[in-house]
Amino acid sequence: MTENVNMYNESSSEVEGKFLQASQQLQADKQTYGSEHIHLYVEDIEGDWLENWDWEDNLADYVDAFYAHCQQKNYLAAYDTLSACDEQLLQPQNYQKRLELYSHLAQIMKAQTSPLSIDEAQILTRTEFRIWEAESLIQQLTINNSHTL
């Protein structure tokens, strides 16, 4: 976890260099140890970890990844990251966060000085639809809450 935090403080070229180095080491270990290389990277590979796996999506992790993609101007990855956590963003307590995230993506895409590619333009269109959806959900939630008072 500390290593991930430190990576955010480094320049992207430093991070890319570390990933390249780690990837090269993985390849070298594969060549040296064959299929046994997995024991170097996964503890208790022979154990029952898969049966006991408890996968819990963490919205904060998705949000961090989203902002990292935005910073790198990788709009497709940013949009895909939000789509991956859409189930969580569609929970009433996260409607405002959904609006905030999609609005951020649209804002930075519109601020681009170079023209958007066709794919980026499609992403912007989908993003604007998600903004409209989020605003509608918030409005509906507000109406429902006012009727219950």
Give a description of the structure.
About 70% of the residues lie in helices and about 0% in strands. It has eight helices and no strands. Residues about 1-10 have low confidence and may be disordered.
Principal-axis shape: flat
Order of H and E elements:
HHHHHHHH
Which value, in Å, is the CA radius of gyration? Answer: 20 Å
| Overall pLDDT confidence | 80
Largest sheet: none
Provide a short characterization of the protein structure.
The chain has 149 residues and is mostly helical. The protein is 72% helix and 0% strand.
Features:
2 domains; 149 residues; mainly alpha; disordered N terminus; 8 helices
Topology:
Blueprint (H helix, E strand, L loop, with lengths): L1 H7 L3 H22 L4 H4 L17 H13 L3 H10 L1 H4 L5 H16 L7 H31 L1
